[in-house]
Structures are given as structure tokens and as C-alpha cells.
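Our consortium's second objective concerns turning raw sequence data into structural hypotheses that experimental partners can test. To show how far this objective has progressed, the report includes one record in full. It was chosen at random from the queue rather than selected for favorable results. The single chain below, 257 residues long, was entered without modification.
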Amino acid sequence: MGAKEKTIKRNMEREEELEEVIQEFKDDVESVGTKIIRHIGLTNYQLKWIAIITMVIDHTGYVLYPAYPIFRYIGRLSFPIFCFLLVEGFYHTGNVKKYALRLGIFAILSEIPYDLAFHGKILEFGNGQNVFFTLLIGLLVLYVWERCRSLPVGIAAATAGMCLAALIKCDYSYTGVFLIWLIAFKRDQKPFMLFLAGIWNFLFYGKVQYWGAFACIPIALYNGKRGRKMKYFFYIFYPVHLLILHFISLAMYGKPL
């Protein structure tokens, strides 16, 4: 072997050694980051409260203060977080059928409060249904996908779910089901999942939804722990807070805005 070939070989070996050192450093940083998040990150319980609070701010702005967009900007964080929590709930629940049944029951129970708050009517099927329908469809898509464990089936199920969501005009329509599927699709690759979830906010609903990308921050801080139980609180809170906002609107303006 000539001197030139030896030099090339030494350089290649040095490059390989450098790549190994860089990869080890990346692994160490990732390991430290994971440990930090696991110890000081957000639990499922805390994430739910962030989603609930931002949702209430959003709905308060829509129903009571539509002239002040800051309410809607803050509220854009809630839906991506709820979608993430749905996916986590799907993979951790002991009974998917009961999970779906709860969502279905409260979707029906919440429809009148939803229509009163947002449309000023007892029932309004033409302008959209409440978010429980969106979450239910997303859950069913995940169920079919996991049962078959096939990407083509997952894509087909997501497409069917998106069509159904668009047909019944549920909250966030087909885009909401699409976000749920995206989060589940890359759930095991959290950085990429966060990237996809963040990009989703720039694809639909104009500039106001851009603010939803900030939801990736608390989602990134999720430590995988459940925290305190909050099994039925949100299910009950959702229709109740909509009724309260409806009656406050009546008291303030004499009629729904």
C-alpha cells in the first residue's frame, strides 16, 4: 500500500472515530434530556389542565369577546394537546371500547350546550358538531390501525375518518382527525412527531392557528407519567362550561353573539 493510500485510510479511520464520538455525545445529551424531562417534566394531569385552561380562554373569547383575538391565539394551544392526550390515552387504556363509549355518550350530551354557546340554538347540525365527535372518530381510526398493524390500512382508516369528520362537520373537521393520526404515526419518534404536529398548525385555519404550534412546548415536556387522576372531570366540565358561557352571554348582551 502506497503512502497516499495509507493517508486516505488514516483519514477515513479518523472520520469514523469522530463520527462515533459525535454520536456518543448526541446519545449522552439525549439521555440526559430524557432523564431531566422524566423528573421535572409535565404529567398527563398537568397537560390536561393546560389544555382545559387554554380551551376555556378560547371559548370565552369566541362567545363573549369576539373582538379581542388574543383569546383565540391563546386558545389555539388546546386542541393539539387534547389530540396528543387522546393518542396517549388510546395506548394506555385498558379498554378501548369503554373509552370510545365515553366519548360517544358525552359527544351526544355536549351537543346542545355546544350549539347554544356557539350558534345560539338548541340544536344546529349544519354548522358543526362538538369536539368529542372529532376525538371519537380519531380514536376509532387508531383502533382500526392498531388492530390491523398495517400502514396502508392506517392510511385508509385515516382517510375514511377524515371523510366522516368532514361529512358531519365536527369541530376541526377532517384536519383534526388528520392531526390525531399524525401524532400516533410518529409517537415513538417524539422530535419528528413534534415537528409534524407543529407544521400542522401552519397548514389550516390561517394565521390564528399558527399560535397552536406553541402547544409543542408542553407536549415536549411530557414525562410519560399519569399524575393525579382526572378520568371524568373533562367529560363533565366541557358541556357545563359551554352552558355557563351561553348564559353569561345572555346576561351580558341579551342574546348570543
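The partners drew two points from this record. The chain has a mean pLDDT of 88. The CA atoms of residues 101 and 136 lie 9 Å apart. Both points have been shared with the crystallography group to help prioritize constructs.
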